[in-house]
Queue: 4 jobs
Job 1
Amino acid sequence: MATCAASESAVDRQRPLEFVQVSDSYFTLGNRKFYFTGTNCYYVLTYSVDEGTRQEVLDVFDGMEELGLTVLRMWAFNDGDRWNALQPEPGVYNRRVFRGFDWAVAEAGRRGIKLVLTLTNYFPDYGGMLQYVNWTTGSGNVNDFYSNSECKTLYKRFVRAVLNRRNSLTGVRYKEDPTIMAWELANEARYTSRPGGGAMRNWVREMSRHIKNIDPNHLVTTGSEGFFGEGELSSANPSAFFDEVGVVTELQHRVRNIDYISAHIWPTQWLPDGNLRQHRRFAAQWIRAQARLGRDLEKPVVFGEFGYQPDGNPRRNVYSTVYNVIHNLASRGRPVAGTNFWMLASPEYPDFGSYSSMKDGYTVYPDLDRRGRRPSVNDTLPVDPCRSCCVQDGHDCSACNDGQGKDAHGKLKAALFDAKRRFPALQHLSLSTAFFCAKNPLLSKMCESIPSEIVAGAGGLCSRSQRGFTRPGVLRQIRENAVNMNALNVQV
């Protein structure tokens, strides 16, 4: 009964919203300009499916409100034999997962949060392009995704299913829901076998046209990192390596159905030997180069990802550089519209990709005690008892006697499955071994062979003793930028 009542509440309290649009190289929302400070959270879809994990999504929404963030970029895909897969088999969609997706969209809409929904991934996390290739050619070459007709048909079919989805809570089709700001074709797509950029542009043209034919209401962008091709802007690329990854942002963002320019900022990944000063200088130059492209193409620029590690003063300084340069450009009328830092998470969520090969280190945790938690469409969530019993008592999560315990068990089981797939030498690995090593990491040599993310997952998913924490100076920097960018939202 509680779930049913919550669903009705979500519909009753859905805010009347308007679509974000592009006008003269800036965004508009209603009769005002729309500049924003936002964030990423890749786990929103998978954690929205089960009531036992939804609190970690609500913490993100609560944190966004506390920080003044208005746009959330999230994955709208999860493919293959994975926990809470939206597309477990080619062309087959999980209704239960779609209902969780509905809940996340309804909750965001109720709070006035705009969503940027990413439709696939160049990297293998959450399935993405490689999963399509494995379903079709079986070559293991992700570049096949762009040229193989069967891959393209499956992707188009998936896109059509998502856009035409009717939300089970609000009754609104996704393609008609103003909660959604934009569709991203893919996360950080690269076409390394065709570095000239023309082949990627052709794929972008075909898929953006496909989306616009189904959904003329929403914006479409690429999800690109933003590397430049040959020309004067190429000097802004972090190194010569990125000249050859097949992106050429000038070509793909010139496509008519691409509404705004996507770029990312990853100083520590792209310049691994650089120091803090060099990273800040690169970020500033990169932002200005992207703004010049926006001017040339007469399209807004959004920095859909940026991050920095470690936490504390280094992160605060880089955030300050990114935010100050962007605000200064935007306040002078340059076509720079917003940012999404990577990433905001619940304090209960460990700082790593839950069943991914990626150990993150960039996560920002909100101060949820700064302001009381607001009522939500899922107020009555029980605490997962498995979190406090697994590592402490040495039990497998499946031994817990309720559904929430099984949810936690399922997440860690997925992480172990992924590790075994990537590392054949770990076929012996069991859940009980992971829990033992999380509790006693120095007591056994067998723990040395287990990937750190698996041990961290066992500890992070099953122990509430350590909550995520971000230094106040970083959070203050985010809040201040949100205020500054919002002040630019004047009437047009």
Job 2
Amino acid sequence: MAKPGDETGTWQDSEIRFDAPLSQLALRPGEVRARARTESSNRFSSQFQIDGIGSVEDTKGNNGEKGMLSITNLRLIWQCQRNSKVNLSIGYGAIISLNIRNANSRLRGATHAGQIPLAEPANEI
């Protein structure tokens, strides 16, 4: 496993990093990311389509912060819209499952909530 800040090893597919330097959010060779869908369109602007979701709100660590969730072939990347230094990278090897449920929000009304149980002890996002 690569040490934080060690860019020579492959860590993107197995580690969880909070507030990582922007250089660590950059895609490594072979990693691909789709561009976000706009709310008014289901069309993607990238030819290689995995998925991207705009306007994703963090309700755990940065409660109420909206950001962009990118899905690559190695990891999930959430980046705050207001401050790009607030971010999260979750390698697929650290994810146990993904649960999506219907939820009610005071701000947005009926919506969906995602919960990601992680392999590291006492972690859940």
Job 3
Amino acid sequence: MDGDVNDLFKEEFKRYKRRKPQPDLSDVIDFSEPSHLVQEYVVDSNISDNATISQLCEECGLRAASSWKIFQLSSRPGFYYIPDPFRAGHHRQWVQRCLRDYPHLPNVSNLDAHIPSRPSALWDDAMRQRKSNPCSWLSGDSLIQRLRWVTLGYHYDWTKKVYYKGKVSPMPDTVDKLCGVMAKVLQFDQFQSEAGIVNFYHLDSTLSGHTDHSEFDLTAPLFSISFGQDAIFLLGGHDRSTRPVAMFVRSGDAMVMSGAARMAYHAVPRVLPTSVTPPHDGDVVSDEEWRPFAEYMESSRVNLNIRQVLKPGEGFPDNPYPVATTSSTEAAACSPACSPGESVAAGQVADGVPCAAPAVGATLSNEGRCHGVDLSCTGQTVSRCTPDTNCDTSSLCTSATEPASKRPCLDA
């Protein structure tokens, strides 16, 4: 059976990603013109008028909470959409923080694995390049243009899809306050900003369909705030057979995934040139100071994604990601055993986890995941897992000679 059958999420992702012919965007929800699919969420006045919340809104560059528009989707309970709650000029301030401040060491970026001695202050380094060669500082090989993500707080391991107790840096106070006030307005009173990912997109960037499931508290909401170019955001269900809802995301807009929406598949198949220029106030960030940031943002989008990692009142678990064991049927099909770091022969296992039969010649991580080679199953090519792509059901082997349960592309 074709692994793509009933994968309606992937079908929609590919449709909106398509360049030729251009997709019809008439069915994409635009929260500036709410449709019958959208319901307005009314904020409790006792909350919005609270003095502490008013003070936090002021500090974060937000308008008074009583003036926010907050929407929900009838088909996706637990999802909230807040169209641009920021005051004039504060988009600029948040873009500055994301580009100039948050990439500083010891925060981790995608560049670190390839450039161990990368500059701590990436933006300052880019400004030196801009001064010496203003026409090429944003070329494809410049570090600032190659920057794809920065992690804050608990640093997410993209390869193994885990957090580590000892790999953590302080969460910026500005981020903590921003998500904290949004959480309070939506009555998520126990929410703690413990891990963040700042994503840097360009006009040709995409984010494939995935769920966020590595946190230890999957009941706490996810917060997502975007600046710069527009995007199409897809929000699906708990499996890929649910056709996702498509919506425009514009500069300053915030999204919250909670409740049933917390574990929903989501993706960004397309970044679009912005159709709206946010109002600015030169008293916040002057036009002169903003100019290099504006040059970068002409073809870029910045997304700040914040989540809670730990359960309220609990520390980091002693055994955070227990290794699954195999059934006797699988074990019989997958012996003898191999050890982490060894070359893998078909059918070997590590730490009780079978290495997928097609992963011949791969090496094992300490968690027993096979990785590092393109996978094939009796001649059938199977998608490779990398830190930058999310595996899907099309990666399943379908050979009759494989172990008892079908093996998805590992690290999915």
Job 4
Amino acid sequence: APPMQNFSQPAPVVVAPKSTAPVLNFGGMGSTMPKPSALPGSTGGLPKPGVRGVQLPGMRTAPRRGRGVMNQATGSRIPVCAICQRQIRGPFVSALGKTWCPDHFICATQTCRQSIIDMGFVEEQGVLYCENCY
């Protein structure tokens, strides 16, 4: 027969080492949390919640995919090209919250430079590439 286990001894208690991080106390409610620390290499300031385009030093934003949409000029607002900074009088392309002259909405790869109006594109660090070159 298998040996009987002795359940009369209490299980050993494991105590975690005390944290050296500063502790925040929320109104004496008995709840404490370690204070968040800055990321290595940062100045300690974190971006505000909901702010787009803010990144910490040394970090890269993820590439974004999209499609350009050809629009006709309207009388209410004159778009400005993200490349040449000129007002666009006539059809224009819109994507990623920006506008382009149709001739400037092209792949950034020097050997390609094809129009990306009728195909998907990838934007990485502010530069547009056709799906073939990315």
